[in-house]
Amino acid sequence: MMVFSQIRGLFMKNKMMIVLSLVMLFGATHVSAAVHFGVAGATNYGLNGTVTDATTGASIKSNIGYGGGLLVDIGMGPSMSLEPGVIFLVARVDTTILGTTVTTNSNILRIPVDVRFGLGHVVSLGVGGYYDNYLTATGSSYGAEGSLRFMFGGGSSKMFFDTRFNYELKAGSSNSKELYALLGIMFGSK
Description:
Elements: H1 2-27, E1 35-46, E2 51-52, E3 59-75, E4 80-97, E5 100-119, E6 123-134, E7 140-152, E8 157-168, E9 177-188
Antiparallel strand pairs: 1-3, 1-9, 2-3, 3-4, 4-5, 5-6, 6-7, 7-8, 8-9
């Protein structure tokens, strides 16, 4: 039974990479030369509400975090691209116990990989996953990600506003939900 559990865990961890590999394989015949590089600032907020710790009675809730990162948008056709990135986030949590509130910061290195579908020149949707490496604590996590992006401007550099929703899929996790936004500039050919 333990072997089955290990195989299932390996498949769950690599499911996103298998899906992305298949998308890249089928999109490889339509790869365009368009590669764009992006720089963005970020803000994040956990959507788990207020949680009360049963042992201490502490009230725990998310606070607005911040960060920034880099994205690479690799064209895979006229309206499809693969977009990996590296984003540094500071997640903030407020803990209140006996009337005293303390804010704790957690540093996270996030690696999102999305397949992006363009809906014209302004709007695009992204679907993919992410991997989080916790820098201030031991551990990591991963999950699914959905994205809605708006592009502004013309020429070889464009501003973008991207909202992303994450759902944690790691086994044994609390399946936390998070909303984060990116505001930045994408550089590259038209």
